[in-house]
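Why do we care about 3D structure at all? Because function follows from shape, and shape follows, mostly, from sequence. That is the central idea of this module. The next example makes it concrete: a single protein chain, its amino acid sequence, and then its structure expressed as tokens.
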Amino acid sequence: MNKTPETLKRLNYFCLIGFTCFSLFSISLTQLFGGLGGILWLCRVQIQRGWKSVYWPLGIPFALFSLSAILAVITAVDPANSFSSLKKFLEILIVFWVANTLWDFKPQDFLKQTAAGLKFSWLQRLAHKLTNILEGVRTREFFIGLLLITACLSTFYGFFQALAFGVSTETRVEGTFSVYMTYAGLLMLAGLLAFSRLLFKEKGKVSVTLILGVLVFCLLLTLTRQAWLGLFVGAVFLIAVRKPVLLWLLPVVFFFAYTVSPPAVKERMNSFVNLKDVTFVIRLDLWKGGLAVFKDHPITGCGFKCVDTVYAQYPEHAKILKRYLGMHNNFVQIAVDTGILGLAAFVSIWGLYFFNVFRLERQKRGTPYDRWVDLGCCSAVLAFLAGGLFEVNFYDSEVIMLVYFLMGVSLAIDPEWKKQNDYIAL
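And the structure:
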């Protein structure tokens, strides 16, 4: 029985590594490792009776948001149709799973223990070499580095798609996912992590520059403008923190990127300044229709997927609402689905997230810790929110699971440090 918590801990680490490796390849495997990891973590806490020591960063806003979602389903215009969407809220567990598991993971120790249990000598030698390579690498750097490597590997298939089928609005690069916007969102997050490492860490700049270039180029081939916008916002944030004067170089970078881009990419870039662009006009119409629905259900919303049921009640917007259903904006969508209660809780999650991370960053300043990870995660979350102004990426499981993972990474702290500094997460 004494060995059970240790066994659960090691299995949990395997799940954490599996989740990281497959985030840019497979939603099924990512959900499998995330779900299993969360269950193993909870089982270990229960066996050790360690609930008092569990760390719940953003627990209050997440709880309020979940309650508002439940209330929205109860008061929905079609509760039966709305109920199934509640399962998405289980993904919130990823934040707490990562924040509580990450601090205890030591890459070198894990590899040494794994090598000792391997039967084949060549695998043992490989594990020992990896242990030497990872000497001095801290836990959070290990997982973000692993994520960047797998993200870079995922672009190989993306480039194959571009070469095999060309790049156009009909044949966008989508990687191993069925929707190009999903893949673009994931590349956006990974690209900003790479950019943060490039700006804030001295070692390995050549390799990180190559990874960043590959990720950004593949992102351009998705022709996904909201992801481009998110990348821009996140990059501006990182540059402003590192050295604001470098912001003057952005026009040069944009001009170079525009010059070397394929015609399809140039066409999408040109559409940024076209306020009469068809897709932009469609989004404006959707937001107007969403606002009309919200006005009739202001407190708790009309429930998830409610537009399927109520669109006919709004003749002026019925055609556009029936065709697209989603609002193409996170905040409008949340307002329609969960009302002002859900929207307020939703906004508080992100506000308190940035507050907590910057508070941690300020308290740890001057100590040997991986600052680039915190700032990279912040820029990725900021990019997610910026992209979410034109797409409901919050309901995109692949994207939001990785966002939750990065939130957990940036909020993970050693319990001993937490006690010594009397730190309480909000």
